[in-house]
C-alpha cells in the first residue's frame, strides 16, 4: 500500500513538471495567429478533405490479436513465478494452453491477417 | 503516518525525475556527438566546452517558440496528449532498484532505500505503464486532425502493441529464471550469473522489442521524416513538442535501465554489497553502454519497411519468444530434476539454435521475394 | 474517518463521475477516455485493497488493450466522431427508476451478507500472493479447468475476429 502511495507521489511530480513546461512555453512564446499557421501541415499544399479518415480494418484486427496474446502473457506471469514448485506438470499444462491458442494463431496467419499491404 | 516518510517520497521522486530530465538533456547531446563521430563529423561544439551547453541553448530556444494549435484540432485532447506521453516515461522508473537492500543506506538516522517503490509485481508494473504510454501517441495523432499525424499515430500504436507481447514474453523468461516478479529479487538472482549469459537470445529479443517499443531506429516508422514528416507530433510546436521529444529520450534511458536490471545484473558489480552506493554508479555505466548501443544501431541500420516491421513482430519475434519461454522452462526443469545446475547450459544452447533458425527463416523469406520480383511477367 | 477511507471515497467519487461521463458525453473518443479514467479508478481501488496483481492487470488488460481496441473501433466506424442525435429518449425516467430499484435491491441483498460489515484484515507482510495465485491457477483442485477453457475462449475470439474481417476477400 505504501509503495503505491510513493508511485502516486511520483505521478503528481511528473504531471507538475509537464505542466510547468507547457506554462513556460505559453508565457514566453510569441502569439501571432494567422489562418495559414493554424492549417494542418501537408507539406505546403492546401489541406485536402477531412483530417481524420476511416482507418483500415487491419489496425482493429491487430488490436484484437494483441488483447488475446496480452491475456496469454498475463496468465504466464504467475505461472512463471511458481514454476519451480509446479515442475513438469506445470510445463505440460502451459504447453496445452499455448497449443490451443496456437491453432488460432496459425489460422490468422493462413488467412493473411498478419500480412500488411 | 510520519511526515518524514512523505518528505522522503517527494525527495526521491524529485531526484528520479531530475535524473531523467538532466539525462534527457545530455542524452540528446551524447547522441548528436556520437552520431557525428560515426559519420566523421564534429557535432555540436560551439556552446560551451565540447558543446556541453548545447542542450540548455536548445531548451531556451524551445521556450521562446510559438505554441501552435491547429484550428481544427480537438483542443482539450490536443493539450493533454503531450502530458499523457511524458508522465509514463518518468513513472515507469519507479520500480527500478538502484542499489542493494543490504547493507542499508542511512541518512540522518533514516533508512533510505535505493528505489522509489518495491512492489511484488514489479515486472507487471513495467508492462502496465508501457501499455499506458501508447495513449499519448494515439491521442496526439487523432486530436491533431491532420492526415500525417493520424497515420503516424495509428502506425505507432499498432507497432507498439505488436511488440509489447514479445516484450512481455521476454519478461516471462526472466521471471522463470528468477522465480519472482520483484525487481530486487530479479537482480539478486543474477549474483552468480547475469541472465544475459543464461538466456542470450532472450536478451536479444528483449533489446529488439524495446527498440520497437520506444520507436527508435530502425523501427522509427511512425515518425519517418521522409514520408510522414514527423508522424504523430507533426502539428506540435514549442514546449508541447519538447514534451514528446523528452518522453522519447526519457524512455530510452528508462528502457536501458530496465534492460540493465533484468539481463545485465542491474546494480551488481564488485564490492557493491559492501558499499551500496556503488550500485547507482554501476547502473549508470551499464545504462550509458546500452544507450550507446541504441545510438550505434541508429547510425548503422536503415529504417525497416512498415509491412516488414509488422510481419517481423508477429511472424518471427512472437514465435521465437514463445519458444524461448518453453526452452527456459525445460532447462530449469531438467536442472531441477537431475539436481545439477550444469544442465542449465541446455538453455543457452537450445536458445541459440532457435535464434539461428529464426534468422535463417527471415533470410529465406527475404531471398525468395527478391527472386520472384525479377521474374518476367 | 481514517486516511484510507478518505482516499477510497475520493477515488470512488472520481470513478463514478467518469462512469457517468462515459454515457453522457457526445464525443465518442471522449467517452472512451472517460472509460479509461473509470477503469483506472477501479485499478486504484484494487491497490487500496492490497490486491497489487489485480490492480496492475486491470491496467495492462483493460486500459492497455481493451480500451485501445475501443478507440480503434470508434476510429473505424465513423468519419466524424461526434454524435449529433439526442443522448436520451422518452424512456429515460423509467430507466433511471429501474436502475435505482436494482441498486436498492443489491444494497439490501449485500447488507444481509455477514461479510458486509467486516473490516478487512491487514495482510501479513510475508504473504506470498503471487505464489498462491500461480499455484491456484494450475492446480487440479483449484482453477485448472477454467484456466484451460480460457484458452479455448481466446481461440474462439481470435478465429471469430479473423473470420469477420477477412471473409469477403
What is the number of E strands of chain A? 0
**How many distinct beta strands of chain C?**
0
Which parts of chain A are unreliable, with pLDDT below 50 for 5 consecutive residues or more? none
Can you tell me the residue ranges of chain C where pLDDT is under 50 for at least 5 consecutive residues?
none
The number of helices of chain C is 6
Oligomer status: heterotrimer
β-sheet strand percentage of chain A: under 5%
Radius of gyration of chain C: 21 Å
Distance linking N and C termini of chain C: 62 Å
Q: What's the SSE pattern of chain A?
A: HHHH
General shape of chain A? flat
Largest sheet of chain C: none
The helical percent of chain A reads 55-70%
**Can you say what the CATH homologous superfamily of the largest domain in chain C is?**
NADH-ubiquinone/plastoquinone oxidoreductase chain 6, subunit NuoJ
Key attributes of the depicted protein:
heterotrimer, A: 117 residues, mainly alpha, Methane Monooxygenase Hydroxylase, Chain G, domain 1, 4 helices, 68% helix, 0% strand, flat, B: 377 residues, two-stranded antiparallel sheet, 13 helices, 2 strands, 2% strand, globular
Structure description:
The complex is a heterotrimer of chains A (117), B (377) and C (169). By secondary structure, chain A is mainly α. Chain A has a single domain, classed as Up-down Bundle (Methane Monooxygenase Hydroxylase, Chain G, domain 1), CATH 1.20.58. Chain A contains four helices and no strands. The model of chain A has no long low-confidence stretch (mean pLDDT 81). Chain C is mostly helical and 169 residues long. Chain C folds into two domains: 1-82, Up-down Bundle (Four Helix Bundle (Hemerythrin (Met), subunit A)); 130-169. Helices cover 72% and strands 0% of the residues of chain C. In chain C, helix 1 packs antiparallel against helix 2 and helix 2 packs antiparallel against helix 3. The interface between A and B is large, with 66 and 86 residues.
What topology emerges from the helices and strands here?
The complex is a heterotrimer of chains A (117), B (377) and C (169).
Chain A: H1 2-28, H2 57-81, H3 83-86, H4 88-111
Chain B: H1 3-38, H2 54-63, H3 75-91, E1 105-107, E2 110-112, H4 122-143, H5 147-178, H6 183-188, H7 195-198, H8 200-213, H9 225-228, H10 238-263, H11 278-300, H12 306-338, H13 346-374
Antiparallel strand pairs in B: 1-2
Helix pairs in contact in B: 1-10, 1-11, 3-4, 3-10, 4-5, 5-8, 5-12, 8-10, 8-12, 10-11, 12-13
Chain C: H1 3-24, H2 28-48, H3 52-77, H4 92-111, H5 129-138, H6 144-166
Helix pairs in contact in C: 1-2, 2-3
